[in-house]
Design goal:
alpha+beta; two-stranded parallel ribbon; 7 strands; globular
């Protein structure tokens, strides 16, 4: 089993476990319906249709996690960085906004044990290219180990 498959639960399963009948979660702060909302909209286009392929970022729906984030924040099928770049605030493009996340920001974890990223959708949920078994899903993530950063591009 792909190592990331066990790290994430589907939004429906997490909502059921939390006792929420409509499958929704509250968001942390008011939504920025401009720039970052486009990121979420682009990410949602691929839920259930996109598939995980290592090192991919393709218009046919093949993505790895950083390729998927690159598409979501730019609308282009070209990389803007790797999980390592997002974590390390490479080139000053990604300010850390962990305390004030907005839907559309980038969730990223980078440790010796795992490296992964996705698009924050509110609460403790993100859309991401999870694994070859799961493809692109919206799922719960552990905010205590993730950093949330904002891309300052033109997306």
């Amino acid at each position: 089993l792909f190592p990331y498959a066990t790290l994430f639960r589907s939004a429906a399963a997490a909502a059921q476990n939390a006792g929420l009948s409509d499958g929704t979660k509250g968001i942390d702060v008011p939504v920025d319906w401009g720039h970052n909302n486009r990121n979420v909209s682009r990410a949602r286009e691929w839920i259930g249709r996109g598939r995980y392929v290592w090192a991919a970022c393709s218009s046919d729906g093949a993505f790895d996690c950083s390729g998927f984030v690159a598409y979501a924040v730019t609308g282009n099928y070209a990389r803007i960085g790797t999980t390592w770049n997002f974590w390390n605030n490479a080139y000053g493009l990604y300010p850390d906004v962990t305390d004030y996340p907005q839907p559309g920001d980038i969730c990223v974890v980078h440790t010796d044990a795992r490296q992964h990223c996705g698009i924050y959708t509110g609460g403790s949920y993100m859309i991401h290219a999870a694994s070859p078994e799961l493809g692109v899903i919206e799922g719960w993530f552990d905010r205590s180990v993730y950093r949330i950063v904002r891309y300052r591009g033109n997306g």
